[in-house]
Design brief:
With about 475 residues, the protein is of the alpha+beta class. It has helices spanning about 1-55, 60-80, 85-105, 110-120, 150-155, 205-270, 275, 280-310, 325-340, 360-375, 410, 435-445; strands at about 125-140, 140-150, 165-170, 180-185, 190-200, 320-325, 345-350, 355-360, 385-390, 395-400, 450-455, 460-465. It is built from 12 helices and 12 strands. A hairpin with a 3-residue loop joins strand 11 and strand 12. Bound molecules: adenosine-5'-diphosphate (ADP). Adenosine-5'-diphosphate (ADP) binds near residues 374, 401, 403, 406 and 414.
Length: about 475
């Protein structure tokens, strides 16, 4: 049990570690692909801008700058004439609103980029936005700040004394957007820093497509590892179950062999006693007992030897054509007398006089095992219904009892070698766990099969099928 739990825990821990590593690697790969994507599109954008500049000598915002400059000049004028702080603030707000609107409307980068991307055969579905980082008005020597983007200000200090407008592509920003253009413009009326950003709506699916091979490989490797673990674990459990069965078998066998052996020992001692020896009737009785127990002992040993022999060689049947109904009647009759009317046995056959090729000795053993189990595993007056019919060149014989029944889990194993059901008191019903194994082997040797259906507490039905 300890071993089982340890194996299970170790297995689960290994799988969790593996999953964590895979997740970390996948996230890393994703991040790398994301960066590559941004880099690629930044390079495309740079190329696009360079080609635009070569063609038209503009970065696409010249009209916007002219409009902003004119508006800024009038805003400066209004501010000098304004009487209160709130009036100044309103003028500043209007100027910022105007600037933002013009930048977002009066630029023609987006269609140009889209065209350029299309020509390059790459994704052209992007959203764009213009972000103002700094906007200020200029009145002679006096500078009037209107808006400072805090994020920008903390990263890139504003240099108010810069006089020449300049354009540059800034470093990568840690946002999902790609920075295409960051520019600074300044004239006598205003100073403006802004950035043009694009954001691909299909970026995730593009990256997913690119990483599909890696992702499926990693998923496949996880599945293989989990599958291997399950197989190994199941094998281990099966081995453990077999080893438990063997131990049980040895215990049961010792128990089974000991009973006749101790009877023989006691009988031997009895024969040593003078008063018994003088009583001829008693001697005969004891000798018969010894003989009976020896036969039983012999049967047990033969059964074990025979089964171990089957493991090595295919056992040979001595088949004969027999009237199936006739042999069934014979078997049931001799079982009834043999067990001293121990059960109510009912028979119902519709074989239509079919003859079947089978080994009568092995077949009798098979039926006897089923019948004696039906009597043995019963906690009330045993009632056994034996039915038979022929269909599709196969005879079906079922033995139904009103015994203790077999649980669903045990039903899967009852035909296994040494298996004894765990439910109920196992020592109450003596056995070696070989009877049904024998039944299955014999049925299979005849090209047939045996199945069980059962309800615990209600009874069991064993059905043997033999083709003819
Ligand atoms: P054994 O009887 O020696 O234990 P078997 O191979 O004949 O071995 O049966 C295997 C197990 O199947 C038994 O231990 C018993 O628990 C269960 N079994 C077999 N036949 C019946 C039956 N008719 N009713 C209930 N349980 C049965």
């Amino acid at each position: 049990m300890v071993r089982k739990n340890t194996v299970l825990t170790l297995g689960i821990i290994s799988i969790v570690i593996l999953l964590t590593i895979q997740v970390i690697i996948t996230l890393g790969v994703w991040k790398q692909k994301d960066e590559m994507f941004n880099l690629r599109y930044r390079l495309y954008s740079q190329d696009a801008l360079a080609s635009m500049s070569r063609k038209w000598g503009t970065d696409g915002f010249d009209t916007a700058r002219l409009l902003i400059s004119a508006y800024s000049a009038s805003a400066v004028k209004q501010i000098t004439e304004a009487k209160s702080d709130s009036a100044i603030q309103r003028i500043k707000d209007d100027a910022l609103f105007f600037t933002e609107k013009v930048l977002n409307k009066e630029q023609d980068l987006s269609p140009y980029l889209s065209d350029y991307f299309g020509r390059q055969g790459v994704d052209r579905n992007f959203n764009y936005k213009v972000v103002i980082n700094f906007y200020g008005l200029i009145n002679g020597d006096k500078r009037i700040p209107v808006y400072v983007n805090e994020e920008f200000a903390s990263r890139r200090p504003v240099r108010p004394d810069t006089t020449q407008p300049r354009t540059r592509i800034a470093k990568r920003r840690p946002s999902p957007e790609i920075l295409v253009l960051a520019t600074r413009s300044e004239d006598n009326n205003y100073r403006l820093d802004f950035a043009f950003l694009i954001d691909f709506s299909d970026k995730k699916s593009v990256i997913l497509k690119e990483s599909a091979a890696y992702l499926s490989l990693s998923l496949f490797s996880i599945l293989v590892v989990v599958l291997l673990f399950i197989i190994t674990y199941r094998n281990l459990m099966e081995e453990k179950r077999l080893s438990n069965l063997k131990t049980d078998f040895i215990n049961n066998m010792t128990h089974e062999l000991k009973t006749p052996l101790s009877t023989i020992t006691v009988a031997g001692r009895t024969l040593e006693m003078a008063q018994i020896r003088s009583n001829e009737e008693k001697v005969l009785e004891t000798a018969k007992l010894i003989g009976k127990q020896s036969v039983h002992l012999n049967q047990l040993i033969n059964m074990i030897l025979e089964i171990s022999m089957w493991e090595r060689t295919q056992f040979e049947l001595d088949k004969k054509k027999v009237q199936i109904e006739e042999i069934m009647n014979d078997i049931v009759t001799s079982f009834r007398t043999g067990c001293g009317n121990c059960a109510t046995l009912r028979e119902k056959y519709s074989f239509n006089g079919e003859s079947v090729d089978l080994d009568p000795v092995y077949f009798t053993t098979l039926m006897n095992n089923l019948l004696s189990n039906a009597v043995k595993y019963s906690d009330r007056e045993p009632e056994i219904n034996i039915e038979g019919f022929a269909q599709d060149n196969t005879v079906f014989i079922s033995v139904a009892d009103n015994g203790i029944g077999i649980s669903k889990n045990d039903q899967k194993h009852v035909f296994d070698k040494f298996y004894r059901a765990s439910t109920g008191n196992i020592h109450k019903y003596k056995g070696l766990g070989l009877g049904l194994y024998y039944v299955r082997k014999i049925a299979e040797a005849h090209g047939g099969d045996v199945t069980v259906s059962s309800k615990p507490g209600k009874g069991s039905i064993f059905t043997v099928s033999i083709p003819y």
